[in-house]
């Protein structure tokens, strides 16, 4: 009986006849032979049965068997006893021991809210902030204001045609141009009938005023007569006031026989329109008569009407007495409400009348009313103090203008340079003269004359000649007095 000895690795294997003695090794076949899949250890060698779950501990916190994946490496033989020992060591490593406080801390995360520290179990929260709509006092409901969209073109495109027409200045002034182009024998109804359905109350007032600016009071009266026949356009005080003002300005308005009765029945807007029309037309006696009748009838008119009449009266020195009486009448009013333009106009009138205290009072009232003076009001105040020989007080107004970053215009430069000439301040006068030209203004003849006189008083003959040459290049011809003074100054320095 033959005997063969096969050696694999370091373990000899005896083969006797047809009997093969298998040792506890695993033999690796060749690469092309079929391999058997290895059974996992937990199925081959089950250690013990499963225990019932511990209800006291959280099952999610227990780390169960941490199975390790074994990779199969061909050509290596592993002993079963060694595998058992390694498995036992892995089991000992995988069994993590948790202490009671750790388990309690981690288990509390799964129970819900963590209990607070003792002492402040009922925490006091601050009160919520008051809401504006809850603390606002109760009042009657107000209508919602219609807010325009960000794009005015889109908003206007959605409006109906009637709303685009009755308040559009372009359309209303275009009606006046169409009426002007009509033949004399044709009535204005041929134009207005086409637009009558789109007009509203007050629309034709702009058209009538435009006809007055064009010098067509007859057409304005025809437009008013057409509006009277339209039930949706009349009665309207705005159209009536515009017609009355146009007719009064063009001397085409007939005065009523009983003026006192007319003043008592007419509206305030119509009376003010008549006064404005008479004032612009030069009929100041009619305007004053209407104001006196309104005063007797206790009709209170707008202060702007008085300002316009005062400004026209102050232009004529013979009527300064009437202007002073009207100014006193305006000063007696308690509800003095003047716009910046009207306030400045009355200040100019007071300067012509020599009432410089009234100018100061008006300026003080204007500042106390919360308004900011304009460059025109500053210039008027400087001129008033210059005329009152209060040069230092006028200089304080100049520094106030500079501090408020007020931009100077040509009249402001003229008054300020005249003030520095009166103070004999050559450096500041020349500085503001240079600033005037740097600002793009062309000096007037009186500015050239004041600067030349100041240089002559200071003995600056070369500067005088330069300014004279500049004035002649600007187209001004020096008067004989300036020329004679320059000649005398030149002869004095030549000697």
Automatic annotation (TrEMBL):
Q: Does the keyword Acetylation apply?
A: no
Recorded hits in Gene3D superfamilies, A to Z, give: Tetratricopeptide repeat domain
Could you tell me the keywords of this UniProt record? Repeat
Keyword match ATP-binding: no
Coiled-coil intervals: none
PPR repeat placement: 409-443
- The name under which this protein is listed is Pentacotripeptide-repeat region of PRORP domain-containing protein
Native organism: Morus notabilis
